[in-house]
Design a protein that fits this description.
Blueprint: H1 13-19, E1 33-36, H2 44-50, E2 54-58, H3 66-85, H4 90-113, E3 118-119, E4 133-139, H5 161-173, E5 175-182, E6 190-191, H6 195-201, E7 208-213, E8 222-223, E9 227-232
Helix pairs in contact: 1-2, 3-4
The structure holds S-adenosylmethionine.
S-adenosylmethionine (SAM) binds next to loops.
Length: about 240
């Protein structure tokens, strides 16, 4: 798959929990402040809030109206359908799209009810004080939207290594404890660790540590489908 822009495509909350390795850890998030950036059209923030967790999502497209977002979401789904179908059973893909539409409706309803949870902000500059969140999550933006030549999806003006470095520094700045990023692999059927991710692990902000993680999350790619987990301090 190839694209000219970052797609407004989002996953249901259970997929997000799975890709960040949080499925068995919801209890552990009680009392935490969580940031999801980019939030996209995902039901994740609504799900966390319903579970009593203090959650905020940022995405520049949150500046758009519901009607504009519906168009963006439909366009993203239409673009993804024929490409992922090659590598997935057809039934599975149809169910996945239905789940995503349902996640999108949950997102829109929650945004309507609690707009303060959905901020129109963009990496690499977030409007939060340092260490504002306990846990910061970032899914399907970093690495995925590097240029095609660099293992991403963008045919032109992909997010380059300098942008990734600035974005990672910002995600770490606003987190008190931990940052999780998914995926950290190339966008290929047989995926590999993205070379930007390897570079970033060797250039973490002072006081941060990190490792590749292997969540049990399948989105049609095989090979190395790792994510990144970063934490402040030793251990
Ligand atoms: C593919 S969606 C990912 C949504 C969700 N995190 C997930 O994993 O399903 C990518 C999102 O990134 C947003 N985006 C684009 N540029 C961004 C930036 N500079 N900072 C934050 N979000 C951005 C897009 O608007 C889009 O909603």
């Amino acid at each position: 798959m190839r694209t000219n822009e970052v797609l407004f495509y989002g996953r249901p909350a259970e997929d997000v929990l799975s890709m960040f390795g949080l499925s068995d850890d919801l209890q552990g998030l009680q009392g935490c402040k969580v940031l999801d950036c980019p939030g996209g059209p995902s039901s994740f923030t609504a799900f966390l809030a319903a579970a009593g967790i203090d959650a905020v999502a940022c995405d520049p497209l949150y500046a758009l109206s519901d009607a504009q977002l519906r168009l963006k979401h439909a366009a993203a789904q239409a673009l993804l359908r024929p490409i992922t179908k090659d590598s997935d059973p057809a039934d599975w893909l149809d169910r996945k799209h239905a789940h995503q539409r349902s996640a999108f409706e949950i997102f829109l309803a929650d945004r309507g009810a609690c707009p303060q949870r959905y901020l129109a902000e963009a990496l690499p500059c977030l409007p939060f004080p340092s260490s504002h969140f306990d846990l910061v999550l970032s899914g399907h933006l970093m690495f995925s939207y590097a240029s095609v030549e660099e293992g991403g999806l963008m045919v032109s003006d992909g997010l380059d290594l300098d942008w990734h470095h600035a974005a990672l520094i910002e995600l770490c700045r606003v987190s008190k404890l931990e940052v999780r990023i998914y995926p950290a692999h190339t966008c290929a059927l047989i995926a590999e660790r993205h070379h930007y991710a390897k570079w970033l692990l060797n250039h973490l902000p002072l006081g941060w540590n990190g490792e590749f993680t292997t969540p049990h999350y399948f989105q049609g790619m095989i090979g190395c489908t790792d994510g990144l987990r970063l934490w402040r301090g030793g251990g």
